[in-house]
């Protein structure tokens, strides 16, 4: 965890990538925000901060079995609130449907949406655009 802590502090963009299990991230991923929320924010009782990662940009990448708006929406909403609570800059989520292990996951459309999402993140980082409006799991070609 100490290694992750240092990497999170030094990165320009924190991307949390996880499949959705039972409407949220997997347990190993959940351990990360759980461990960082006190260590980074330094909210202890009445004492608040100084937060070590205030302003850090955060993005999400997920796969889920349901359509993303029904499969990954709770994870995104939870992380939106987490980011607000932690003074992080939420930039959006790319979520793709995975229809099962007997199907090929990757296709041209997913690759194009991923490329657009990445380009949008780069623009936001360069230009300091404000956080994307909801729902960001449906990439908006005009914005991302
Ligand atoms: C234990 C388990 C729980 C899952 N729960 C959900 C879920 O709540 N909602 C959803 O949309 N998909 C769910 N899925 C589907 C996965 O999110 C999807 O298949 C994902 O791509 C699996 O990634 P993995 O192969 O890396 O585990 C679940 C899959 C597993 C294995």
Short description:
The chain contains 5 helices and 5 strands; from the N terminus they run H-E-H-E-E-E-H-H-E-H.
The main β sheet shows up as:
3 strands, parallel
Strand content: 15-25%
Supply Rg. Answer: 16 Å
| Top-tier CATH class | Alpha Beta
Instruction: Give the strand tally.
Output: 5
| Residue share in helix | 40-55%
| Strand order within the widest beta sheet | 1-4-5
Helix and strand sequence: HEHEEEHHEH
> Architecture in CATH?
3-Layer(aba) Sandwich
What is the mean pLDDT?
90
Q: Work out the helix count.
A: 5
Task: Estimate the global geometry from the Cα principal axes.
Answer: globular
Description:
- It is a single chain.
- This protein is of the alpha/beta class.
- The chain has one domain (2-127): Rossmann fold, CATH 3.40.50.
- The chain contains 5 helices and 5 strands; from the N terminus they run αβαβββααβα.
- The strands form 2 sheets. It has a 3-stranded parallel sheet, with helices on both faces. It has a two-stranded antiparallel ribbon with strand order 2-3.
- The longest helix is centred in the last third of the chain and has 20 residues, at 108-127.
- It is globular.
- The protein starts with a helix and ends in a 17-residue tail after the last helix.
- Residues 19-23, 63-66, 71, 98 line the site of flavin mononucleotide.
